[in-house]
Amino acid sequence: MVDVTRARSFESIGEEYDRYRPGFPERAADIIVPDRVATALDLGAGTGKFTGLLVARATQVIAIEPSAPMLAVLARTLPTVDARPGTAESIPVPDGSVDAVSVAQAFHWFDRDAAAAEIARTLVPHGTLGLLWNRADPACAWDLACHRVAHPAVGADDDTSASATDLPGFVLEIHEEVRWTERITREDYLRRWGTVSSFLVADEAQRTAMVAALEAVLDGTDETRGKAEFDLPHLTDVFRYRRA
Fold it and tell me: Distance (Å, rounded) from C-alpha 115 to C-alpha 129?
C-alpha cells in the first residue's frame, strides 16, 4: 500500500531536491537504453536526475512529473526535453508511441498494477521499461546507520526495489547492481536527508532530533569524523524489462 502523504511530500520541493539528491551512474542508462532510440520517456522524472542521461540516447526525450516545482527545475536545466505534468497512472502520451520508459527512484510510490498497465500502453511492441533505485552500499556501516535514523520504521534493510519483481505485462531481461562512489560535503550529506519523505512529513522537533542523530553518526565514525567532505559509496539496482 502506497503511503499517499509521504508520496506527495515531494510536491513542495524542487530546488532542494535537485541540489542535494544524488544522480545516477552512466552505466544505469547504458543498461536501460543500450542502443539509441527514437523516443524515451522518463516517468516520475523529478528534477531530471536521470532524464539528463537519456538526452544522448534518444531523438526525443519526454519527462513526466506531477510536482510543478520539480518540473520547473527540469524544464529550466534540460530545455531540449519535452517536460509534461502527469502521473504514472495517467501518462499523457498516445498508445504505442514510446520506445523506452525509465523510472528512477519512484516506482515504489506508484499504484503498481495500474502503472504497469499504463506504461505498457505507451510502449511500442516489445518496448523497454527500466526501473532503478539508489541504495546504501551494505559495506558502508555509517551510511546504513544514517538510513536507520531517517527510516526508523523500516531500517536500513528496506528494499524499495522489491516492487520491481513479477511486474505484470513485462518480462525481466536484466537485473544488475552498479557500484559507484560520490564525493560529498558533510553539509550536503546532512541536507540531503532533509529531502527524504520521512523528514518532509516530520514536525520540527522530530526533524531536529533526526539531524542530531545523523550528526552523532558522522562524529562517531573514522571515515567522516572531523571531515568537511568524504567519499560516499552507492549501489544502484537496475532492472530492464521487455513488454510482453
Answer: 12
